[in-house]
């Protein structure tokens, strides 16, 4: 959980205080995630072999917020700290009880606004790519979030990397999130929202995300209460979302690729469980802020489908094939002008695609709002000068189109 950087930091301090008064059970035996319509009835954490201590973290990872297992280097996982820390990804060799820092990768041009998620996806050539999720939003105040992607290095050594940065916004408003996942077969990215006392949602990104514009994240499935991290199985046949303390159970919820829950697996009790990745098809690695211990958690057989093979699973859930580029187009509205505190209307329009189409926009000045169903921007704007509006449209298949245009606000 990232610290708040402004006056609302008091909320973060309150959360930390709760950590000291909530009972620290040695093992959590029931899941808090309420079943969604696609869930099976899983009332209690599934029995499994006992977790074991895998390795300790090297120095410099006190605010651990995301880990992801390497695909090129056996025994190595990548790790990041959350907001207020450096723009660096750390390669940790966890093949011995004492973890060793194998490399530090500095992400050029990327500030650590709130790095909360980490995943291994695919680059444009189909090779493994490290995905850094700048997706944290404790106050639900970010108009858009970002994911920085760069190829996983073939050789582990300190280096500066130049990422491709993808921009995203949720189709249904703003959300806090700490879980970034990537399907190892398709490369499609997913983000799970984090809610206190209520189940979150899993959101799907378009494939591929379009460069230079805001891509829309669409809700497709359930997520547990207070989801703090997630990962896809290396087989691609399942994925996991974990809940962490102090406001969530230390439980890993495993789903198949249709979003059906397979099992809830108890995790070691940690004060601020923030991270999870797959060590291999049948075992998880989990960690926490302010705790140097990384644990290996075996999965029960019903929570490890596809082990021993590499199937080609259906993404979560089964999508309609994405239209070829050009099917959905968002018309460029061109330069627009509105007067201060006077009625203003801007209509967004699309061609092609499959209805219904949903609209989103960033950069709107105070006083203007967008109807996501009709694409109509209305209101009485406050402000002056020229702002740049970025609009996106998403059809029922998940295809996305975008356009950007200037809006000039005049006083008279």
Automatic annotation (TrEMBL):
Biased composition annotated in UniProt, kind: Pro residues: 312-324
InterPro entries assigned: Cadherin-like_sf (IPR015919), Ig-like_fold (IPR013783)
Keyword line: Signal
Signal peptide as annotated in the record: 1-33
Domain of life: Bacteria
Coiled-coil boundaries: none
Gene3D superfamilies in alphabetical order: Immunoglobulins
Region described as Disordered: 301-326
Name by which UniProt lists this protein: Ig domain-containing protein
Organism, as annotated: Streptomyces erythrochromogenes
Lineage per the UniProt record: Bacteria, Bacillati, Actinomycetota, Actinomycetes, Kitasatosporales
